[in-house]
Amino acid sequence: MMESADVGAAQMAEKVAMLEKQREELWDDVAYLKSQFIPNNLVFTNIKEDNSSGNETAEITETKLRTHLQETLKIAKDIAETIRFERVHRSPGQPVSGKIRNIVAKFKYFKDRMVRRQ
After folding, report:
1. Neighbours of 61 (CB within 10 A)
2. Which of 3, 82, 88, 95 is the most exposed place for a label (fewest CB within 10 A)?
3. DSSP annotation string for 60-110
4. Which of 107, 68, 104 lies closest to 85, judged by CA?
5. Using one digit for the tens of pLDDT, what is the confidence trace for 14-65?
6. Of 65, 73, 67, which is closest to residue 107 (Cα–Cα)?
């Protein structure tokens, strides 16, 4: 009886070790995937939000971002208008009167993101 308990404990220890190894591999995979997506994202702050009638549409948010790129960051209008975004949206959460949510912009092309960072 004691031998079967020892065998069972050894099998459990083996299983736990295998699961821990798999968990580490999954964490590595998640870190890799995050690194592939995050570089094309930038967060913009303090861009006025019109939330009087609910959430801004993505189109309005993108227009405000392009204006910000031109007026505040001094990027030429023709360049700001040709930057391709995959997605532009406000930070998650419900709009709150008097509070400005950040804009998250995912650039379609890495080179467009670099224009913004220079």
Report:
1. 24
2. 3
3. HHHHHHHHHHHHTS---HHHHHH--EEEEEEPSS---TT----EEEEESSH
4. 107
5. 999 999 989 888 877 776 666 556 667 888 988 988 776 667 888 999 999 9
6. 65
CA torsion through residues 21, 23, 27, 29, sign: positive
| 111: phi then psi, degrees, rounded to nearest 5 | -60, -35
What are 72-103's pLDDT values in tens digits? 999 999 988 988 998 898 887 777 777 788 89
Domain 40-117: homologous superfamily in CATH: L1 transposable element, RRM domain (3.30.70.1820)
Contacts of 79 (CB under 8 A, 6+ apart): 115
Q: Give backbone dihedrals phi and psi of 115, rounded to 5 degrees, phi first.
A: -60, -45
Has this prediction a pTM greater than 0.70? no
N-terminal to C-terminal alpha carbon distance within the chain: 72
Beta carbons within 8 Å of 90's beta carbon, 6+ residues apart: 49, 55, 56, 61, 101, 102, 103, 104
